Known about the structure:
The chain has 10 helices and 4 strands; from the N terminus they run ααβαβββααααααα. It has 305 residues and is mainly alpha-helical. It has one domain (12-298). It is elongated.
Amino acid sequence: MARRRWYGRDRGLSARMYGTMFGLGLVYAVFIAVLVLLLWPSVVLIIVIAGGLLVAQLFFSDRIALAAMGARVTTPDEAPELHATIERLCQLSDLPKPKVAVANTDLPNAFAAGRGKKSATVCVTTGIMQRLDDKQLEGVLAHELSHIANRDVVVMTVASFLATIAALVMRFGLYSSMGRGGRDQTAIIILGVVAASVVVYVLSFFLLRALSRYREYAADRGAAIMTGAPAQLASALERISSSMSRIPIQDVRASEGMNAFFIMPAVAKGFSLSSLVATHPPTEKRIERLLAMQAEMDGTPVPVE
């Protein structure tokens, strides 16, 4: 089986991406209808502004993500080994080489950003490069390239933006209602908008989390097939997980906004997300799946529990 065709075969991920976008589209169509009924004609301005911001987010999402991490795009002369590994993996999977960026932070992590295969960026932190060996880092880079190949980066970008808009409308409505008091008709309308925004945000939140968790499994699988060595990524995930607990709390919290895009969520010490709202599946399950794939590739029988 040619490795270059692997990325077109995850029908489960494709179905979930289409389902998420359809669900979000339906939710937001109802949301816009509510806004039109309650705020017309002011809603026209809201839609125009939101549309403009969405276009900006779609076309500049990679720059926004890099700026949030303080990352800088590098050249092959500045990071020859990093570029060489990515170029080799791209040749294996028939992908155009993305831009390569490095974020100067001790947080061990990596992410992919961009609206398509030809306009993508893979970013790694100095922390992850210092902690992983060459094989482990190759597994991480293959994981991020899998996100690009699966096109789930752009879906997450658009979907996350729509959820953010709902959250902003919700906050604006709350502040406005508090400023106006609770008796006049305007305050009642604003509270109606807030209620609609809350429903939209909650539904978006869970749709995004469901997609985010599955896309990590899909990218793990893609990386395993691309490299032919699932154990490399499993070892990398274990190393990143063990290192994360030693990162200062302020550094972790400063990056938590990027959790949905990271290969491993940045979670402050003493704080844990439930499996219901986590952006990623449990690390132990990811490692278990990867090791099972390695055993299958090696021809070793996998015990059935």
